[in-house]
Amino acid sequence: MKGTNMHLTLGTEVIYDDASFQTAPLDKIGVVGVNGAGKTTLFKVILGEQELDSGLLQTGKARIGFLPQEIKFKNPNLTVWEYLLTSRPIEEINKKLEDIYAKLATSNEQETIALLREVDDLQETLNMLDCYNAENTLLEIVTDMQFDDELLNTKLEALSGGQKSKVAFASVLYSSPNILLLDEPTNHLDASTKQYVINYLKNYKGSMLIISHDTDFLNMIVNKIMFIDKTKHKIKIYNGDYTYFKKQLLEERKLKEARIKEQENEIKKLEEIVKRARQASQTNHNLKRLGKDREIKLEKKKAELETRDKIYKRVKMNIEPKNTGAKVPLSVDNLTFHYENKQLLYENLSFCITSGEKFLIVGENGVGKSTLLKLIMGKLKPDSGTISFNAKTDAAYYAQELEILDEEKTIFENVQNQHYTDLQLRTALSNFLFFGQQVFKKVKLLSPGEKARVALCKILLKKANLLVLDEPTNHLDPDTQAVIGENFGDYTGTILLVSHNPSFVEQIGITRMLLLPEGKIIDYSREILEYYYLVNSLQ
């Protein structure tokens, strides 16, 4: 893959300015850069969904597999198995061949030659897709990824967020690509599936580009880092993993700062000479000549002066609750629930949360973690049992798939709240790195990371004393994850949390854990959490 002199501007924002790069066939590359640098946009360019203003991006005849950050299925009425079968267009190609053979019966000599060439191309594609062994290959993938018959027969529209990611990843693997484009591939995945993904990618015989905020994951997979520089709008590839890249980048910035300081000192000295020369009498010809010479050098030095890299602000948060909560803000009694034509997710599940508690729900994908939060927030109705909020409880809900956002509305419209003035809302949005006219951009145009920041801003404006959070760190860069973890750790209200991010869980200070599907409640300890994740990874 090769990018040459790429230029791209979206609206008034420059994304790439004469950016170039080249990758090798077996490179495993982590794609990094601050939010809005152009990481996901690069994938769109590679996929042909976004045209460059000028320049080239070449992939040859490579088959490209893409796992998007936001999983959306075109035909949600298909079962998982039906959907996976479509990942290799074998049936579609065979249909084209049938049509061509029918045309050959009545074609003239010139038409026949063209049709036979098309037949050769289609047969070559079928051979690449290994059409005779394709179904066995798919069975191996779903077996290794622990798809059971119930999941394979489930319609796509009924999948949980984690199951969607799992199915989409299986689809990409089965599509047999030469180049893999993975945008946050570990979002929503439980530990067992994540471990499978890690093992698969380590042994993958092709090139891949991975956008991920999970730096530990990148360190296990990649041998190079592609840095998209939002300040310079350039692309540079570094050898080594993410940790080594950070060391290299830090050293580059130290050297650059030293160069800039030296340049600034030279400019200052030249400015002093020029100033003295201008103040000198007209009869001091030597000093006047020297001044003119140094003035020319001064202008040249100023033109050559390097600019410092822009330091991007970090998210600021003020999440203290407006009202004091009750001693028991939430209780669940004898909750029973199942989806239509599915087995029970819970039967007579009971628990209560106490004021100021940080309560974690854990379990593998599909056991009903997100569903439980939706039941608690009234998005679904239980078969039986009760969910009770104390009258003093103010709850705010962060949904894993960002359903709380209206994509057709602007950022500002999504966070509007009758308790705040427009100025206060603009200030709050600036704390989440949305400035000036940016707040009037429609949410559907934002990157997943930007959408996540809007959703967090929206719920935190409520100043609730109970936060119900479903994977709040998905889509967010490591710096923002750390800020959120720090703030949630200091939060004096109550938190009910679903998260697959162990470092974040540890940071916010979990008090107890609910294990699903058992319905067992245990006191939090790091050892138990690590044991649970280890058990999952070995299943």
Protein described:
The protein has 539 residues and is an alpha/beta fold. Among the domains are: 246-304; 330-538, 3-Layer(aba) Sandwich (Rossmann fold), CATH 3.40.50.300. It is 42% helix and 20% strand. It contains 18 helices and 18 strands. It has helices at 39-46, 80-85, 90-104, 109-128, 134-144, 149-152, 161-174, 191-202, 215-221, 242-279, 285-304, 369-376, 411-415, 422-431, 448-460, 478-490, 502-508, 526-538; strands at residues 2-10, 13-22, 28-32, 54-58, 64-67, 179-183, 207-211, 224-229, 234-239, 330-338, 344-353, 358-362, 384-389, 395-398, 466-470, 494-498, 512-515, 520-523. The chain is flat.
From the structure above, extract its key features.
Rossmann fold; 539 residues; alpha/beta; 6-stranded mixed β-sheet; disordered C terminus
Briefly characterize the structure:
The chain is of the alpha/beta class. It contains 18 helices and 18 strands.
Summarize the SSE layout with pairings:
Layout lengths: L1 E9 L2 E10 L5 E5 L6 H8 L7 E5 L5 E4 L12 H6 L4 H15 L4 H20 L5 H11 L4 H4 L8 H14 L4 E5 L7 H12 L4 E5 L3 H7 L2 E6 L4 E6 L2 H38 L5 H20 L25 E9 L5 E10 L4 E5 L6 H8 L7 E6 L5 E4 L12 H5 L6 H10 L16 H13 L5 E5 L7 H13 L3 E5 L3 H7 L3 E4 L4 E4 L2 H13 L1
Parallel strand pairs: 3-7, 3-8, 5-6, 6-7, 12-16, 12-17, 14-15, 15-16
Antiparallel strand pairs: 1-2, 1-4, 8-9, 10-11, 10-13, 17-18
Helix pairs in contact: 3-4, 8-18, 10-11, 16-17
